[in-house]
Amino acid sequence: xxxxxxxxxxxxxxxxxxxxxxxxxxxxxxxxxxxxxxxxxxxxxxxxxxxxxxxxxxxxxxxxxxxxxxxxxxxxxxxxxxxxxxxxxxxxxxxxxxxxxxxxxxxxxxxxxxxxxxxxxxxxxxxxxxxxxxxxxxxxxxxxxx
Length: 146
Ligand SMILES: [Zn+2]
Fold this sequence. Notes:
By secondary structure, the protein is mainly alpha-helical. It has helices at 2-8, 15-20, 30-39, 53-72, and strands spanning 113-117, 120-124. The chain has a two-stranded antiparallel sheet with strand order 1-2. Helix 3 packs across helix 4. It starts with a helix and ends in a 22-residue tail after the last strand. It binds zinc ion.
């Protein structure tokens, strides 16, 4: 956990592109990052160095949960994804936000939105994942106040 927190220190970028950086945390794909951020209730455009300790701890836990669930379900099926044997994974059925733009959030009922963050399609619940930092820092959450 300390190692995990250290990864975010002095990182000024948005958390989603940071999580997708393969040198940062290997093996975390686009869909899994969206799911983990939703579970942790963190907006993908939050700046990494604005995350509070409790938020980092939620994120850490969510990433572990999402990866564990994905492994259990043998991979996520999206468009062209198939396992080496040609069969499709089953994880798509347990995705909470990915690919669900326009549908109701399973947690709060708000409408899931699609954004583009760091050039990647990104799904969020705008109510569960507010961009505002709880510490009240303004102007640090990229894209909102420009
Ligand atoms: Zn929600």
